[in-house]
Amino acid sequence: MKSLFTGRFEGYSVHHVKKDVMSGIIVGIVAIPLAMSFAIASGVKPEYGIYTACIAGILISLFGGSKYQIGGPTGAFVPVLLGIVLTYGYEDLLLAGLMAGVLLCLMGIFKLGSLIKFIPRPVTVGFTAGIAVLIFTGQIANFLGLTNMERHEYFMDNIQEIVKQLGTTNVYSIFTAILCLLTIIITPKLFPKVPGALVGIVVSTLVATFFFSGQVATIATAYGQIPNSLPHFAFPPITLERLQQLIGPAFVIAMLGGIESLLSAVVADGMTNSKHNSNRELIGQGIANIVTPLFGGIPATGAIARTATNIKTGAVSPMSGIIHGVFVLVTLLLLAPFASHIPLASMAPVLMVVAWNMSERHHFSHIVKLKSGDSLVLLITFLLTVFTSLTLAVEVGLVLAVLLFAKRMSEKLVVTKVLPDHSLKGEKVQAHVVHKQHDCPQISMYTIEGPLFFGAAQMFEQTIESALHQKSKVLILRMGKVPFMDSTGEAYFSNIMDNFIAQGGTILLTGVQGDLKVALQHNGIYDKIGVQHFYQHTGEAITKAISYLDVNQCIGCQHFAFHECKDLSKTKEKKELIVQ
User: Fold this and answer.
1) pTM for the whole thing?
2) Cα 261 from Cα 255, distance rounded (Å)
3) Is there a contact between 145 and 172 (Cβ–Cβ < 8 Å)?
């Protein structure tokens, strides 16, 4: 238990209780309408969102890795959960959520939390903006009060359904929705600390109830009365067939939940100058998602907006998150009958505003304006999220991002043939010295700069192959600026080495150090070349290379500035060649 409180409840005192209680209550007030809205948008009853906010909120605060994280149902899950409900049903959603919880725990146990940061920003912005579009358009029907609507998994099918049912538009629903929307927008400007969503729902519900009761659909008419009782414990039936069927959806929930929770934790770190434990956060999210489905709750993750609200209202520890969960539960027990009268048209603007706020529109616009590979990744991820599925969008986005990264990195590899420049002091090797009429027939020397990996290995081989065609005696590779070599690079490098040695040549390497040296030792290339052929400095390698030269082929070119270099092919005299 000691490790649970280390760094999160450490130093906690009675003085902090008041701040956490106030923050917890305020966040609870914000969470209630959102929890119901997210549940309805996900295709399940509103009370399941309340159960999630309560149970998952408490468990994430207790076992997570961030002091300020507020957990619960979020907008990011809406299209994913709706797709699962439409395809498999509510009971299978519970099992998928439980399986996702197990996967999240395993991710945390095996310390995979740090891997989330390797997901490119264009991918996260792309699918987040796509989810925002799906949430926004998904509320058009409730905003307009359309009836006989059939929910579909895919975007275009839902748009066609909306167009098909436009004739059932309800003016009372539109009035209710507009009133709620205006209240949500105006309230923060007049009363910055008052939750606009809650005020909007209360005002629009009262107006609809007293002035045109029965004219708009409510939670009660659509889903039945919200029970004012504790959720019942029930273990979802588990079979091998269901596990196999749901492993894909569970993996999507786990990955999205992991990404969202850690992004939220990073935001909290930035606002408080603190540091979360990413692996413990995943374990906390996992525990919450294992337990919550047992009480009918839907998958949960860290909620960025509610976490930010928690911090802004003065929270000092995870206790505020626990109090937020308790407050939601108490509110459910006391006010459930009243919540049942909330019009669906009042819930629609709440989710539309959430979608607008989560759309990442500024980041989206900025990346698109770059007109780069990142722009392409962003647009493809966004379009696939909207028109196909989040799973396909993330997969394609990641693959495309990796390919573009590999292309960029391959362009960083520069392989240039060099010779000593006698016009410079110290006769440093330079690329401009080498040209068709000025080259050494016996020593081929190359400077290699950049990573030698699968994206650049073929170009490296093609460049160095000229030394094989030239029948050089010695190949000097200056590798001081090669940070690493992957298995593909090793294969190409080994192939060059074998071919060059097979034709009687000698390979000398200079500047090899660090991870590259370790890699060459592990794959056997180091021993095959021979430790005596590795040098720290180029000058040492050149001195060694001269000893391998055939003096009968030296024609006075002075590439390596030999003293009194003569046409040795005529004199047939062997002289000691010294590098100046």
Assistant:
1) 0.83
2) 10
3) yes
